[in-house]
């Protein structure tokens, strides 16, 4: 069956080389076998289409004769499963012996967002806490005190995770990149898997000496108490949201909220 390479990449037959490359990059990120959304068969189809349409001569032959021109011989002798152009695409024509470093540089953005894990950790607030309590009808109209556990900022290190007298240094595990890479060999070539560095949690820096009180988390658990006035006309459920009443954020980020669901017995 004839293959529609333009449809595979989701482009028109008049697409420019830049549009072809842009479409390929987007789909390659989406269907890369190492990703959660990966699809090895789809990834292979996308790569096959790109190898043809990115080459002027192959594209011209395809436009004139269809995909039958590439069956068997495969892209000028490369074979449908060959990924040489895949490596060339990412290395800008400077193909490396394994293609490993160039693939890492491109796909690190897809897997880690180019420091995405670090940005998310630094921007995110603490976890919201959900507390469900029950009260009797005799409690309606009165104030009651409820106790719960929550994470608060570590007083010993002031939430920095660094022991007193110490400082932050470049992570020795990832060299400050905030991510680590592993090579995986497959029948289609060598692919890299990029993940957040476990030693520095994606920050690129780690404490020279970790705070012992919070074990480098910047937070410690404690018990809190909150007083809530129960509406006199409460029939069943009553939800109270206390802004920043939840867990403190990591690295001195804002606290989450406390959500109290009050039910009548």
Automatic annotation (TrEMBL):
Give the matching PROSITE patterns: DNAJ_1, DNAJ_2, ZF_CR
**Annotated protein name in UniProt:** Chaperone protein DnaJ
Organism lineage reads as: Bacteria, Candidatus Yanofskyibacteriota
Originating organism: Candidatus Yanofskybacteria bacterium GW2011_GWE2_40_11
Q: What keywords would UniProt list here?
A: Chaperone, Metal-binding, Repeat, Zinc, Zinc-finger
**Residue stretches making up the CR-type domain:** 141-223
Which Gene Ontology molecular function entries are recorded, alphabetically? Answer: heat shock protein binding; unfolded protein binding; zinc ion binding
Q: Name one GO biological process term.
A: protein refolding
One Pfam family, short name please?
A: DnaJ
Zinc finger regions, CR-type: 141-223
Q: Which family does it belong to?
A: Belongs to the DnaJ family.
The protein's matches in PANTHER family, at most eight in alphabetical order, are given as: CHAPERONE PROTEIN DNAJ A6, CHLOROPLASTIC, DNAJ HOMOLOG 1, MITOCHONDRIAL-RELATED
* Keyword Zinc appears in the UniProt entry: yes
The J domain covers which part of the protein?
Answer: 4-66
- InterPro entries found in the cross-reference section: DnaJ_domain, DnaJ_domain_CS, HSP40/DnaJ_pept-bd, HSP_DnaJ_Cys-rich_dom, HSP_DnaJ_Cys-rich_dom_sf, J_dom_sf
């Amino acid at each position: 069956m004839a293959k529609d390479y333009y449809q595979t990449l989701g482009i028109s037959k008049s697409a420019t080389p830049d549009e072809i490359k842009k479409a390929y990059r987007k789909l390659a990120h989406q269907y890369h076998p190492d990703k959660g959304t990966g699809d090895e068969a789809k990834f292979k189809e996308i790569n096959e289409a790109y190898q043809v349409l990115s080459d002027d001569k192959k594209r011209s032959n395809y436009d004139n004769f269809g995909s039958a021109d590439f069956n068997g011989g495969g892209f000028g002798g490369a074979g449908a499963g060959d990924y040489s152009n895949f490596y060339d695409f990412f290395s800008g024509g400077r193909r490396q012996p394994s293609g490993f470093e160039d693939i890492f540089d491109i796909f690190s953005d897809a897997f880690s967002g180019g420091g995405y894990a670090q940005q998310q950790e630094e921007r995110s607030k603490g976890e919201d806490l959900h507390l469900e309590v029950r009260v009797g009808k005799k409690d309606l109209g009165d104030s009651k005190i409820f106790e719960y556990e929550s994470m608060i900022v570590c007083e010993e290190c002031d939430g920095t995770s660094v022991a007193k007298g110490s400082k932050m240094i470049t992570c020795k595990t990832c060299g400050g990149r905030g991510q680590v890479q592993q090579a995986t060999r497959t029948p289609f070539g060598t692919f890299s898997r990029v993940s957040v560095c476990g030693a520095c949690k994606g920050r690129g820096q780690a404490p020279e000496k970790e705070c012992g009180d919070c074990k480098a988390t910047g937070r410690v658990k404690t018990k809190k108490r909150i007083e809530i006035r129960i509406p006199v006309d409460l029939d069943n459920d009553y939800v109270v949201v206390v802004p920043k009443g939840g867990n403190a954020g990591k690295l001195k980020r804002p606290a989450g909220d406390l959500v109290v669901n009050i039910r009548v017995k």
